[in-house]
Design a protein that fits this description.
about 425 residues, six-stranded mixed sheet, five-stranded mixed sheet, single chain, alpha+beta
């Protein structure tokens, strides 16, 4: 890896990873602003803004933005999360200047014309309705809201149809002007490129960004809770979880190994015990969702109305077993899965681009593969047991969508 970082005079951090053997490059701007930065009356504005950035600038119409990038065979996209909003492109190496210019253009010169805003409002409301009609999707929003009730961290990324319907153009524009600044942005590029050329392109293209912006985040307070949406469906979709930990926590890598060991593949405990041995589910897995100052650890499963009464106690029992004996071969498999996932991602310019931006945002510096592998290899049975005990020491969060009549009580782990 050939990673270099430069901070421009306006505070924009530019990070590149040269991959001399490929013919493409991925470039993007990662903004340290997301759903958790929204006030309750404008929940969904970060996502609304992400959509509107593509709907025309002072130099390009919405059609021009799509046509210009596709004219060179590239693609342009974006996403909103609870802590970040990303705008990125993948192009052939000779078209990097166009991609840099387009991303800078939509982040500094968006016009957000009224007719485009109304059309996109309707599109986003359809997206919200689609999410609500997808039980294995919306159950995660319910889980987040139950874990962090009445907090920005618990609100849905998409917002609600009612809030999106009432959101005004000035609200979206003001949010962009008050939150999108050079100091809160990372411009990352990976592929067949030259660092100094990317720095010069970014220096010119992002010259109109405000240097700084005010941003005060409330600290998330995990509470735990129980939410059930009783619907006439074929399956119950449920998420059961506990308080996790942040990216910066000393136990982060141990928790990652534990999550993989517990429910990260077909050899994991959950898959073997609940799907393979008992046939109670088609899909079941564990996940670790970490943030800059907190996180969640959970299990998703989907099962029939008649089987759900058996499922929850079994998951609870398997979680409790994590504090017992963990065999070395289990740990070795989980370590290998994590390391392989990291190393395989290095073959993708898009993955490397996003990985660098995330590392700069969280740690303030790039993290080498060797450093990451060393952390994973250092995880042992004692460390895993310690994290498992930590996970089981607080209140449980449960969310479920579907025929919940046989679900039973939310489990309480022994303190």
């Amino acid at each position: 890896m050939d990673v270099q970082v430069t901070t421009l005079a306006n505070g924009l951090r530019v990070v590149t990873d040269r991959m001399a053997t490929v013919e493409t490059a991925s470039v993007g701007a990662w903004v340290d602003v997301g759903t958790r930065d929204e006030q309750a009356p404008i929940n969904g504005v970060s996502h609304f803004l992400e959509h509107m950035a593509f709907k025309g600038t002072e130099r390009r119409s919405a059609y021009d933005i799509a046509a210009d990038i596709e004219a060179v065979g590239g693609h342009l996209n974006a996403y909103t999360s609870r802590e970040n909003t990303a705008y990125y492109a993948k192009v052939l190496k000779q078209d990097v200047p166009l991609a840099v210019d387009m991303i800078a253009d939509i982040l500094q010169n968006s016009t957000m014309q009224a007719d485009e805003l109304e059309r996109e409002r309707a599109v986003i409301i359809q997206e919200i309705h689609q999410a609500h009609d997808t039980p294995d999707d919306i159950v995660f929003d319910y889980f987040q809201e139950s874990a962090y009730p009445d907090q920005a961290m618990g609100r849905p990324v998409l917002g609600s149809a009612e809030l999106v319907q009432s959101m005004q153009r000035d609200t979206v524009l003001d949010y962009m002007q008050n939150h999108y600044s050079a100091s809160r942005m990372i411009f990352a590029a990976a592929g067949n490129l030259d660092h100094e050329k990317i720095v010069r392109l970014a220096e010119t293209a992002f010259s109109h960004l405000p240097a700084t912006s005010e941003l005060t985040r409330e600290l998330p307070t995990y509470c735990g809770g129980d939410f059930r949406d009783d619907r006439d469906l074929e399956q119950v979709h449920l998420v059961l979880g506990v308080e996790g930990l942040s990216y910066l926590d000393e136990d982060f890598y141990t928790a990652s190994v534990l999550s993989t060991l517990f429910g990260g593949g077909m050899s994991s405990r959950l898959f073997q015990e609940i799907r393979e041995k008992r046939g109670l589910v088609y899909s079941i897995y564990a996940f670790l969702s970490s943030y800059s100052d907190g996180g969640l650890f959970g299990i998703y499963a989907g099962t029939g109305a008649d089987e759900v009464g058996q499922l929850l106690p079994l998951i609870s029992d398997e979680m409790a077993k994590l504090t017992g004996t963990i065999e070395e071969d289990e740990i070795a498999r989980a370590r290998a899965q994590l390391k392989a996932s990291i190393l395989m991602s290095l073959e993708s310019t898009s993955s490397r681009c996003e990985q660098m931006a995330r590392q700069i945002s969280i740690y303030g510096r790039p993290i080498t593969v060797e450093e990451t592998v060393d952390h994973i290899d250092a995880v042992n049975a004692a460390a895993l047991k310690k994290v498992a005990e930590r996970f089981l020491s607080g209140p449980v969060t449960l969310s479920a969508v579907g025929p919940c009549g046989q679900l039973g009580q939310r489990p309480i782990f022994p303190q």
